[in-house]
Amino acid sequence: MEIAYVAVIILFCLGMYTIITKKNLIKIVIGITIVESSLILLLMLVGYKPGGTAPILDKRYEIVVDPITQALALTTIVIGGSVTAVMLAMVIKLHKRYRTLNIDEIRKLRG
Amino acid sequence: MELAVWVIILPLLTAFSLGISKLYFKKIFFKLVIGSAILYLYLLILVITTSYPPKVYSIGQWGLLGINLMVDPLSALFLLIIALLFLPFIIFSMKYTKCIKHDYFIFSYLMVAGISGMVLTTDLFNLYVFMEVSSLSSCALSLYKKTDRGIEGTFKYLIMSTFGSFFILLATILTYYLTGTLNMAEISLAFEDTPFTIKSTIMAFFVFGYAIKIGLLPMHAWLPDAYEDSPIPYNVLSSGLVMKSAVYALIRGLYIMFGIDFLDESGLLTIVVFWGVITFITAHCLAFQQSNLNRLLAYSTIAQIAYIMIGLFVGTEAGLIAGSFHILNHAIMKGTLFFVVGIFNYSLAAVEIEDIKGLGYKFPILSFTFVVGSLAIVGLPPFNGFMSKWLIVEAALEAGFTYAAFFILVGTFLSLTYYLKVIVTLYTKNEKPLLIEEAGLSLKLPTIFLGSLCIVFGIVPSLPLHLITKIPTFLLDNGDYIRILIGG
């Protein structure tokens, strides 16, 4: 269990590092996706119980995982997917206009 | 009874039916846009007038497990801003968006649905979802012109906004992990025996995430870039509503979940007031250097929101009233200024300050409205900006933040310099400017409506204050809010 939380922290910091330091637009979008995945993983961990099954209200299933976090994770995936789609569409437009993906060069060309 | 639910459903329904009507029934598209806006205004007025005492709407009778909506005076204030800005925005946009773009109206309805959802919900995760709905559609609106600068600025906006959302989502997940609930009242009760360090870490994530969306100092750079080449009616809604909705979410979350005592104890109040002072001084200095009208107004927005933050975070009843009053006044004043700039942009393609030279004689009424708006935002009597700024200074002095009160006066002089620069250019004699298209009544009417509100709220401040003075009752003492939410 603990090692999974460590993985979440590493993924989160890695994604943040990518967003802040990288100059390539695609890499920034990748960084955002990594951070988002780490948060989804965290959501799953929060609701997880060892040996738990699907949340069915029946006497045979005593240990069930938390269904709320799963619903939240689904919502987060949908939001993240649409944000990534909009971002990539903008990256395509920017590449068509400036013929480069480097943030510094775009800023220079923009004047 | 279920009127509050319709405040969210109506714009959402309109957005989707506009999508269908764009494909199959093009003729009724604009009738639908206007009709729905008028119906929405009527609905908002009904909800605002019945907002006191606060009521809880439990959707589907699930009680605390389900989705609960609550209309309290602070929500009613934001619904009032939507009511004042949305119909003028729609009327203005009809004419302003020259070639007919159907998507523009679909996204504006989605954005308003997101904001009204944020304002009404009592659930932390719903707040996050509605915030994402409003910020994504806000990005789509800001892209509308599809120019190089517009796309680049919007990309920066989307990156920053998503970056902030991650911290808010992280704080939400950690809150759920600690308390096992997402209902704000239950969180507040469960937080009482949480250790100090864990609570303040969660609070720091919330504050950092929302500070990006609000545009406090180091994270402010996206705002002028996003405003520079976006359609101007969108700027009205963005600075009036989208930015303010982040302020709403921040104070609602902090005051209800953590409580004023914890905010004071953890030193957040002092930090935010200091942060606000640095932000508005820097923003005023940067605004002075701008030659682009949109960028100048964007920096002015950053400064004004810093004033609002100071008012809301001095932590007294007077401060909350002053800050909330400034939220309303800033929406009206900035709306007036952006609308006038929008008309100049529409009829003369004016972008820079130089372009509006000598227009004071050509458009006498509009220029006068601009002067009224800018004097109000600087904070001169008898306009509405003076009233709320005065209240903020008074509240800061009363709470012992003398330096904040002093710098607000310094900031007033700084803002006077750059607004005077624009006004002087407006009234400098110039050769006949090149007129592209005459501005119609549908552009002038919303502008003059908001401009006259600046004067009316300045002379009769008791009109909005009647509603605003009830706000601290349900914020400063979170017990009342919790009792209503859990009892209902």
UniProtKB/TrEMBL annotation, chain A:
Gene Ontology CC entries for this record: plasma membrane
Superkingdom: Bacteria
Name under which the protein is recorded: Cation:proton antiporter
Bilayer-crossing regions: 6-21, 28-48, 68-92
Entry similarity comment: Belongs to the CPA3 antiporters (TC 2.A.63) subunit C family.
Keywords: Cell membrane, Membrane, Transmembrane, Transmembrane helix
Localisation: Cell membrane
InterPro entries noted in UniProt: CPA3_antiporter_subunitC, NUOK/Mnh_C1-like
Pfam families cross-referenced by the UniProt entry: Oxidored_q2
Membrane topology: Multi-pass membrane protein
Record lineage: Bacteria, Bacillati, Bacillota, Bacilli, Bacillales
TrEMBL record, chain B:
Superkingdom classification of source: Bacteria
Keyword Glycoprotein in record: no
GO cellular component: plasma membrane
Chief location of this protein within or outside the cell: membrane
Membrane topology (UniProt): Multi-pass membrane protein
InterPro entries: CPA3_Na-H_Antiporter_D, ND/Mrp_TM
Subcellular location: Cell membrane; Membrane
Keywords: Cell membrane, Membrane, Transmembrane, Transmembrane helix
Short name of one Pfam family: Proton_antipo_M
Family stated for the protein in its record: Belongs to the CPA3 antiporters (TC 2.A.63) subunit D family.
Protein name (record): NADH dehydrogenase subunit N
Species this chain originates from: Paraliobacillus quinghaiensis
